[in-house]
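ok here's Antirestriction protein ArdC:
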Amino acid sequence: MAGYRKNSNDGPSAEDKALDLFAEMMIERIETISKDWTKPWITEGSLGWPKNLSGREYNGMNALMLLLHCENEGYKIPRFCTFDCVQRMNKPSEKQAKEGVELPRVSVNKGEKSFPVMLTTFTCIHKETKEKIKYDDFKKLSDEEKKMYNVYPKMQVFRVFNVAQTNLQEARPELWNKLANGDAVKLDESEKMSFEPMDVMIRDNRWICPIKPMHQDKAYFSISKNEIVVPEKSQFKDGESYYGTLWHEMTHSTGIEGQLDRIKPSGFGSDEYAREELVAELGSALVAQRYGMSKALKEESCAYLKSWLDHLKESPQFIKTTLLDVNRATSLVTQNVDKIVQELEQNSKVQQDNGQRNEVKQSVPEGKVFYSSVAYLQSTDDTSRLDALREKGDYEGLLRLAKEYYDGDGINEQYTFASPRQNKGDDLLIEDKDFAVVYNNCVGGTYEVMLKYSEQEIRDHITRYGVRLASSDIKEVAKDMAAEQFSAMTRQRTPVLEMPSGDILHIGYNRDADTLDVGTATNAGLAVSHSFPYDHDNSLDSNLQSVNEKLNEMEQYQKEEVEYSGGMHR
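and the structure:
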């Protein structure tokens, strides 16, 4: 790859090296396909979506390269971690340290080589003092304080290892088995033949343009009519071929003006046309992979194989711009498909729960919505397109474009709030069932894309992950949950502790102070002697056990000892 670029005197950057590697891998893949165009882009159709150890998904560009990397190296679990992440696994928890528990050390196997992933980070520098602060801290500043900082976006390269390159299986067998069993996408042949979310999307006309299955022999997206035409499902050899073709044309349809503005007027066979075919091919392959299917090259795209190879060999930068477009397009496709998947799952759950209405259920306020920040846009490249739509009054178009920036991650608990307006000058421009866009005219005009969650979803998140990094609004929900759990427990048993000294202590949960209060029962209520902060990262039983241990360590509750010396009591 040395001939692809003239390097500076300082040598190639980490980004250049990553792009060189990505280009090499794409060249190898395209050359393989050119020998047999029926071979899928990604052959391991059962391989799950690449994630880090905490479950955060990689975006389209990194996901594609990590999937190819897994296939090339034979990795069966698509989970990756940095060297620092591996080291952090060896740090004991506070409880483990207190109990002296020593876990087997996790390490990267000797001789293993890392793989690059590319992420955009932001550097925030004070205009006068030149002090740097973290981007998360910058977002917490007031509008006036933000004016004192310059913010510079930068593409950074991080090196990751697959879990198979570590001794995780031996050191943490339970975690290894959880990862091994949880990441594989398991669809039987009947599910591949009939993927209900896509069938619903077509039936209910829920894509950004009409999709028309017709009994004929061509599949295409018409720019002039803004519609997709495909043969009927029965005309394809299997369901994977049908849905793969749909996703190819759907990827094309994301590129028109008013959507992602990717497709420019160009003649058939031009370089721009060839590049758009590559975007559609890689986009459909990634979407297929996400839903447990494989995607082979569309026959009409074979004519562009040489053009793709020439561009890649001439400039690896070509793969970066292409994959960024693939990422935006696939995000739009999967957002719409996932929404229907969630609706179908919810409907299925409702049906399963039918007939169980007499069961006692936790009372949860209905209709309460929380807003989680998924993108904060302030660079001109991002805001100019949104500004144009806002100035035209096209808020529906603005919302569609803003959704592109959602990368599929879960709740951003640190920036999830009960109201979308968090700063002075915030203006809620538009929202739908799932998303909201907030505009702030300060500092040149910024946009914040927010994903909406129900209170039940917030509660489920708290149960799984605690509130260590959560916003104050999420912590308020956690307090409600603790109060409800404590109340439910007191209906079954009274929380009373008998100390070694013989003292009988009662416990109550103080929601206002978020503490477990301990004292003696009186006619007027609990006479509090001690208060302990409630730990929402642990269960109620664990909190009560912790309180009991702390009380037992207090001298005032120790059992009185009778000492004897020389036969005389003292």
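+1. Residues 494-570 form one domain.
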